Amino acid sequence: MAYSTLPSELHLLIAEFLAESPDSEDAFNALARTNRTFYMQYNPFLYRYHVASHSKRPPAPAFHWAAKNGRHDTLVRLLDAGAEPYHPRIWQEKPMSTGWTGLRPLHPARLAAEKGHVRFLEAIFDWEQEDPGSAGSFGSRLGKRGYSVLFAGAALNNHLPVVQMLLARGVDPWGKNTLFLSQGVRLQKFSSELLQVLLDDARHREHLQPFTNWEPVHMALRYAVEQAQDIEATRIILTTGVNVNFLYSDDPMIVVRRPLHYCHQPDLYRLLLEAGADPNIDNNDRWGALSSAVGNCHMQAGRYPISAEAKGRRWERIQLLFRYGADPARAGGGWALHGALRDADYGLADLLADKGARISVVELSDADQARLHRAVEEREWDTVMELTPVNWSMEGYAGPGLMKDACNRTFPDCEYWANDVSATDTCAELEKYFDATVAELHAWNPSLLEDYCVLIEGWSYCVEGPAVTVTAAASTTTNTAIPVVIFTEVTDFVNSTILAAATATSASATTVTTTSTATYSGGVPSPTQSGLVGTCNAYYYVIHFLSS
């Protein structure tokens, strides 16, 4: 009797018997493709077999394949065959310390959202276990966080149909500190249409009112003008009525910044000014729109020559500011003038002086200050630079009202400053760039911790000053934990590396010989490796930091 003529019940019995063979799945796949009758008989069995074979480490490969390729029909068959969307490996049932439950990173629903498969997502949202005691449909169990994860994944991959479907289902992806909006603008992930949809939805959310004070949209504006330099994105954001004079930080230790301060392209300058950006809002003759437009107030200013093209853009920015009413006495004209002179851009210096820019240095005597004013009026630029500290127009020299008093945290005889320190700058980079040792950095900057060198964003640090004497001490032997790197998921999209101390797993304690810290005027340096020569005067300090 031919195999094909056997009753279907016998076909399934034979299939279940042969399923114990490790290679049976491939064999049955081949058999199922022989003709339509075999396909109809064996396909449900193959789905059940496939799901059962991967029950210990879901999701089953077919589940992942269906999500990646948007095969909602395959999804339905897998769910009917017993595929488990709530397995602990892909679903967090019990609240974690952060309070969230729901989708883990490997869940197929996240992949489907990132790939833009609307019908797959709709099918899994509406799926409900047949068990009468089930807690409702998959979609009802997702919760606000789960939907927010899917929404952000779809938006950051520019899948407008998924975003629109989620909004139509009532999803509210917005929170006080929503990150994906600014991330998408910074990385230019959004089409103009998608960005418009996102902003229109956020603007009408009652819990985000007043919308003009909502920080995520202002961060999006900042990244649009600063990093992406995206004219279209900037124009779309401005149509929402965002506050173009938004203050990104009022911390007295950090130079205040507004959208104009982050802008570099003349076309973007024009957009901000047309939207109502006030160049005089800072009301200061040092820090303001003019000094920001000159663009050499940061820590590496003067180390690299400015190109003719950059000078041209700078000239255009300055002229735009004056066209929109910039007053040197209120928009940072003093710093702008001094910065132009540091770059030997005398044409720009003449323009600023013609518009009324003056330089006032509080450390000068009345006689020297009067002499400085005369030098500016008579365009005696060499005299101006002789009378003015070279770093006067750098952020570290800002003084009260702009940054914390530098004398409270640096050596009083500092000769050169590193300014505008960012969140990613390290002590090791300062040492290498400015040819300074860690001992000197600690001596010149008492605010640095004695046993741990960490820079604070926005602060200035002395990198050149009086000589520092270092005296090596004797070696000691201590039991030390071994640093190991571990990885942990801290947000929906970001993994961060954190340093944790862990002792060795061997039976005996791990013994490490370290040289005790050196002593010198101004503080104590970091621990050093064993066997270090006593005459060492330059150190490279390895630090760790959280990235988010």
Regarding CATH, which class of one domain? Answer: Mainly Alpha
Question: Mean of the pLDDT scores?
Answer: 77
Helix content: 40-55%
Q: What is the CATH superfamily classification of one domain?
A: Ankyrin repeat-containing domain
Which secondary-structure class do the elements indicate? mainly alpha
CATH architect. name of one domain: Alpha Horseshoe
Keywords: ANK repeat, Repeat
InterPro entries: Ankyrin_rpt, Ankyrin_rpt-contain_sf, LysM_dom_sf
Protein name: Ankyrin
Organism: Aspergillus japonicus CBS 114.51
Can you walk through the features of this model?
There is one protein chain. By secondary structure, this protein is mostly helical. Among the domains are: 175-189 and 202-397, Ankyrin repeat-containing domain (Serine Threonine Protein Phosphatase 5, Tetratricopeptide repeat), CATH 1.25.40.20; 409-548, no CATH class. Helices cover 42% and strands 7% of the residues. The protein contains 23 helices and 10 strands. Strands 1-2 form a two-stranded antiparallel ribbon. Helix 5 (72-80) packs parallel to helix 7 (118-126) and helix 20 packs antiparallel against helix 21. The longest helix has 19 residues, at 138-156. The relative contact order is 0.05.
